[in-house]
Amino acid sequence: MPAHIHPRRILLAVTGMSPQILTETLYALAVQPSHTAFLPTEIHMLTTTEGARLARTALLHPDGGQFYALLANYPQLGRPAFDDSHIHIIHDANGQPLPDIRTPADNACAADAITALMAELTRDPQATLHVSIAGGRKTMGFYLGYAFSLFARPQDELSHVLVSSPFENHPDFFFPPATPRRLSTRNGQHIDTADVVITLARIPVVRLRHGQPQALLDGNASFNETVTAIQQSLAPPHLRIDIQAKRVDCSSTPVRLAPALLAWFAWWAQQCLNGRGLQNWRTANAQEFLAIYRNVVGRDAEAYEKTCRRLRDGMEKEFFEQNNSKLERALKEQLGLAATPYLLATSGKRPHTMRSLSLQPQAIELDWRATG
Q1: How far apart are CA 51 and CA 100, in angstroms?
Q2: pLDDT tens-digit series, residues 40-52
Q3: What is d(CA 71, CA 30) in angstroms, rounded to the nearest whole number?
Q4: Helices and strands (H, E) in the chain, number of each type
Q5: Which of 2, 105, 98, 83 is nearest to 47 (CA)?
Q6: How far apart are CA 272 and CA 293, in angstroms?
Q7: Which SS3 state, helix, strand or coil, does residue 268 take?
């Protein structure tokens, strides 16, 4: 679905000491578009406490707020939702609102806030998001653009608005009014708003959303965690399973598996290490799996005893296929695209299809110490 016909159309901008970035971008998108007009149904702003104060005063004040003036000048904009509840203030590590972004810690908090908001706004499949990186400090623009790359869907867009001199950064210029106005510069010269040129530069980006772990898409990870997860997906694969510690690491990412799935993954790793990588339910040795499972949960565990009874006559087709499916689902949910090297590969044709780990033996570290 093209961006402009989604029922929910969101404009997101970061701002600092220049709230006019928002009205300039909105004007360029909807009034003087170089592409199909994008008419937002809602607007969101991410900023500091000082940026929020300026936005409320300059854009949303009942007496002369420039956001309302823009809507009055150009009725085709409609009435996009934008009020104080749409101004998102960045907080520090202690939960206190940040007046400015100056220190490395402040930048980290800004990055996390941007990541969380981007995840939230891209969660709705019926929405399209247009993101402007024109405002705020340079680090904020970078983080916003990077977060866009991580979360953007095909319908989402990224842009930067350019305003011609001497209107750029002019404190009284917010958009070209329908009836041109005369403004004064700092050196006493007069300029006419009819001469301004506003250009919206759409920015192409590499979109990395596909294949990300669901926790990142849900906004349950910080900016650094998100970047680290993507970076790890590009690293050479290495599987480490520690039976005693009940721990699985894919590269440096821990993967949480239920005891039965951990034992199942370890069984596949053992097959690979022993040169018996290709398996199906007919060739799979149930006793080898049970030996590993016993080390995970203990000989007297009810789950182990139940599985022993189920597999007393050998590997069961349904058990084999269900565990393969559960393992694949768990890896994809937690690793996203980075799960690919750790998934089971299929070879051969039915009914003789075989499965195997895609990893090379040298990429597997299996710490399995039998307890008898």
Answers
A1: 8
A2: 999 999 999 999 9
A3: 11
A4: 11, 14
A5: 98
A6: 17
A7: helix
